[in-house]
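Project standup — Tuesday

K.O.: blocked on the structure for the chain from last sprint. Re-posting the sequence here as requested.
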Amino acid sequence: MFTLNAIEPRMILVFAGAALMFGGVLFTAFKANWGAHFKVRQRTDSASGLSVRANWPGLVMLAAAVVCFLGAAAV
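H.V.: unblocked you, prediction finished:
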């Protein structure tokens, strides 16, 4: 029969970390590539979407993913 061993705290942390890692990478990529293209004003700086100030939510998501992975390794 099916057991509930697959739903243990370690796996929940791994899945949460994977989701945060995927979301953080996607957020940072979309912000860098398409963040300035939809604005009316033209920017002269081609790397304007690569600053830490513009990508802090994605970087926080990546840091939270690392914490989840370290927590899963410690459990």
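K.O.: great, moving the ticket to review. The helical segments are 9-34, 52-74. The chain has a mean pLDDT of 80.
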